[in-house]
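Raw record, unedited: Peptidase M48 domain-containing protein
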Amino acid sequence: MFRAAASLAMLLGFYVVALIQLVIVIAFAIWVGVETTAFIGAKIAIPLVIAVGATFVGVFKAMRTRSGAEHGLLVTPQAAPELWNTVHALATEVGTRMPDEIRLVPEVNAAVSEDAKLLGLIGGRRRLYLGMPLIQAYSVDQMRSIIAHELGHYSGRHTGLGVAAYRGRLAVEETVEQLGRFNPVGIVFRGYSRLYLLVDNAASRSQEREADRASVRVAGPAAAIEALKDLPAVSAAWGFYFSRYVAPGWEAGYAPDDLFGGFGQLVAARQEELAELRQQEPEEATSRWDTHPSLADRIAIMRAAPQQAHPVDGRPATVLLPSIQQAGVALQREVVEVGSRQVLPWPQFIAAATTAGLQRTSDRIFRSLTRLTGTSEPSLGALLDLVEAGRLGELAEEFFSNATRKEAAVKFSGPMDMMLTLAAIRSGKAFWQMSWTEPVKLVDADGADLDLEDIAKLAVNPETLGEARSRLAEMGVRVEAATVIEAKATGRGAEVIGAMANVKVDGIESDLVLLNRGFVVASAPKKSDKGEQRLEELVQMYTGEELAARFRFIPFEEAGGATITKRTPIRAELRLHDGTVVTMEERWSGDQLGKSRDTLVEILERIIRNTEE
């Protein structure tokens, strides 16, 4: 109640402060008009009145804001009766009304939202969101605890005005956003917003503790503590799953046919690792600006709560859904935009993704081979011809810049192993075998492990190259099967790491976007105003790959050297392998995102080091 009352009072304070400033502005304008002319008074008053008016716009927008668009997979009572019965029982125990909808979402989270009106004073349609990863990793008791906690925010003392407090936070944030950085009245309201959030966050932490007590009361302290402690572990597993298993294939143009089912298999296969993560005690501290107490504090409160006997239900939470596999596939259809990606079963998806990674790295070498030899058809066969001619060191030193040519040639056995693997796969003599517990493995047609490392070591030496060719031929591996696909470097999978406005590139006013794979040069107006806004819009509108395709792209791999002639502002030259020289000149008045200027210097210095070693 205190949080909601304080929120509403401070919202009223927003109006009062705005009205006071409006009166001051009008009074000031009248005084100026009397002392000078009415025209000057109006000229001064209009911008200030508009600035103050932004306050009312922000509050009005927040009052009309709803909980957000419906998302996730709607689960009906007929489709999951046990889940609905469980939620109904929990709502009764917690002391709140039953949600009108239950939806599965692709997040390691659970939440309740309500389409309330008049800053939450009038209730509306209520929805319970349950994260599919939690259902796949939690027990029934743990899910009961999580659901009880979320419903607890809408029970007893949290009802009605608690939603108003949330709307109050939206009103404050929306108002400050509407004011902008350069609004003359912004200083007062930004200070007011910090005071509001300070009060509101303290009350929010108190409500989290109350919801935790409801969770303990309904599900028992053991289940409540386990559910809370397991959240970081499940979140880490979900992140690992996406980065290790999903992202490589997704970036290569593929999609798994059962995205959520894959995570379920990962969880089942890596129980020991998850158990180790669960044993780690949280140590993070809380701040007065946090909306939640620290996990350690919350767990301590749960352990101190009254101990009540609870029947243990350690069944996997997946039993709450009649078919978790069907639910996962349906959720994927609902929330995942596959686009033009090829949808494959998991074994084929992993195989295609791994091969695509091999091809991408091989293409990088093939492009260097083209620059060195001028061949129009770079392939593994052409590379072996280079070895036979005793020139592998010339190519290898580009990839091992801190080694002599002879040393670089020997070290090139690693990349050679990779390229031989690509040839074996393209020849239909090697295959990828996936595992949920180990890295993907290369096997032959009989499923036996296949290792080409020894042949690769033979293939980098002109004296033993013949033996390598013979062994490859005996295996049926065709070296011509490994050839270039991307003859020109692209920004596939590239990420934006910086951006600078109004940099002269080759004497032309440009916006320079820094990717982790190269430079993107986009035309820019001569005026340097609004540069930061322009950069933000650019990087929000396009991905790194799209930027590289849409504008001039200079891959790092094409850089043969660089010179920094002046550091403040930056003056530099970039020398490409084809002899082209690209000049860069920074403006004193140019804008940047973050510390992009430092990033540019680091990139240029790295190019210089690589070419000097």
